[in-house]
Each structure stands twice: as structure tokens, then as C-alpha cells.
Amino acid sequence: MPRSLDQSSKLKNVLYEIRGKAVTEAARLEAEGLKVLWLNTGNPAEFGFEAPHQIVRDVIAAIPHAHGYSESRGIQSARRAVVTRYETVPEFPRFDVDDVYLGNGVSELITVVLQALLDEGDEVLIPAPDYPLWTAMTSLAGGTPVHYRCDEANDWQPDLDHLESLITPRTKALVVINPNNPTGAVYPREVLEKLAKLAAEHSLLILADEIYDRILYDNATHTSMAQVAPDQLVLTFNGLSKTYRVAGFRSGWLVLTGPREHAAGFIEGINLLASTRLCPNVPAQHAVQAALGGVQSIDALVAPGGRLYEQLEVAHTGLNSIPGVSCTRPGGALYLFPRLDPEVHEIHDDQKLVYDLLVNERILLVPGTGFNWPSPDHLRVVTLPEARVLAEAIERLGNFLSSYRQ
Description:
Number of domains: 2
CATH architecture of the largest domain: 3-Layer(aba) Sandwich
Helix content: 25-40%
Order of helices and strands: HEHHEHEHEEHEHEHEEHHHHEEEHEEEH
CATH topology of the largest domain: Aspartate Aminotransferase, domain 2
Number of helices: 14
CATH superfamily of the largest domain: Type I PLP-dependent aspartate aminotransferase-like (Major domain)
Radius of gyration: 21 Å
């Protein structure tokens, strides 16, 4: 009889509801021939968003000479393109190609950094709600995720008093997700300056997730953490998957700015782990230079009349028209995070709500608790489908909620 094999105990706090149990059921339903509307992941290609032709052309042209490993940080031309991208951002601290690491998506780079940084019991401040990979990878690296509240009544801005109250001698890093996933909040400069000040006072490493920095609506302005903290070590994470609609390329980057004499061992750890994965996907690295130069096609998509803008309008208006549902308007990203009023919709288990909606309406959402929000009163809706599809889906959600009871 073979020895029983259970999952590692390290996974006990690793949750990722975006691809959880309901996703398995959705796949089963589709295997039976039933059509499911997948509103659980921000995957542009699934909804007809094509990659810019320049990117595809350069990757195809590179295939014949992209068979071998690259250097562990990534190819020089792609890292140089990242440097050039930030040279046009006012006040962004200067850095060079050796301060850039390319990765198989931002997810891999988050994992590398947290593994290099954390000892058992070290604490990381992460927003609630959060992109759950930050919480999951903190736990997997042996750290303790500590969630600071973002205030829905204040357009989902971080609650700075609550954040400061959570800092202990074991707190090692502060995660800032801006624009935020799942809320779409874009943080004003004064809030970022206060976050940087707290980090400086308590010697916290700043980890800035800025993957949506060019997906902005209604004249929202994005400010990078590195811009407001030039004299602090800031790690900025970004990539091609959302802005350039090539999520499957898994092409992300990490930029180090600010002083780093005090962090030599940590950076050596990043180099070590970057080397152990040998290198990022080489063909996808050839997409970076083409993407970051020239016309930025995302600008037309997020402007009034553009597809992403109009889909946001329809979804935001539709959700707020459902009795007992309210939704803050996001300044960026590809999501809405509506609230279900507990006085109208008495939901005790939002995972069950998502499952029941899937089974009855063939619509797959993500429960708010999947983003480490403490109460079962929110859902995340992806705004990537065409406006007519979103309008119909939200109408069906409203009809479902009108008679749904737990």
C-alpha cells in the first residue's frame, strides 16, 4: 500500500479563490456543453482584445534565435526598454539595466522577492481587499500577512491609522497595490506620501504593485511609490499582461530604486533565486521593447468612447441599479467590487453565493472574501466583456439576487 501523500503544511494559508472550487465546477458545466460567462479573471484575450500587432510581429521574428537561455535577469534590450519607459515619468528615480529583473509574469517576481526577503514569522502589511497572490506567497515564504483596511466610504483609500496600528518589530515590508485590484482605487499623491513616510519611520521595504498604472479612467492620475520615495528602497512590479493584452506571454518586470547598501544580502537573494529559475521565457522577452515604444494603444481604450471605458460605464451603472447593491466607481484597473447591503441581501457565505449563481445563471464571479476582505458582502466583477454582454449579465445577477436567500 503506497504511503498517503497530503499537501504540504506550508499550503494551509495559501488561498486563491480566483481559480478555486467554483472554477472547477464552471469547467465541468462547459464540458457538458453549457456556456459559462467567465467573469473571474482579468484575461483580455478571452474577450476579444487582440495584442498590438507590433508585439506579435517582434516575437515571431525573434523565435529563430530565442531557443537558448538568456541571462538570468533577462535580455539587455528588454531591460533597456524598461529603463527608457520610466525615464519619461517625472521624478521617477534614475536606475539602470542591472536594476531590472524580467520575470514570467509579475506573479513569479512577487514569489522570488518574498522568498528572498522573509524569515519565519516576519510580517508583511498587505491591503484588504488585496490581490490574493500577495497574501498567499507571503504565507508560503514563511511570513505572516497582516491586512490593513482600505475604506470603501473614502473611495477605498488606505486607512492610514489602522495601518500604523498594525506595525510591530516583526513588520518587514509594506505592499501598495495602485491602481488596486479588486477595487480599482487610484491613490492620490498625498496618500502615497503618507505611506512612504510611515515606511521610512519604521524601516519598511516598499513593494509597489503597479500592473494597472496605464489603465486609468476619468482623468485619474497615477503616481508611482518610487516617485514619492526617492530616498527609500522601492521595488516596483509591472508588466505587459493587462495594458498590452498579452497575459499569456507571462512577461513582467521588477525595478529596484533608491538606496540599497543596507539591503545587499536581500538583493543577493533575489539574484540567487533569479538564477535558479535559469531565465524568464525568452520569446516573450522580445515583446517588451515593441510594447513600451511608440503609440500606446491602451490610451484609446480607456478614453470616453473607448471599449474599456464604455464597458466600465455599463457595468457600474447596472450594478448600482440593483436594489441593495452599491459600487464605488473605480479610477483604474479592470474590475468592480460591489457591496451587497446586508439589510437587503443577508449573505453568510459569499463562496456559496458565487457557486449558486454559477449553477443557476452560468455566471462566474469571485467572492469578496477571496481578496481577504473580512465580510461576505462583496463580489468582484471583471469589466472585460462587451458592453451588451455585461449589461445582460448584471441584469441576470439582479434577478438572481432578488429571490436568493441563504
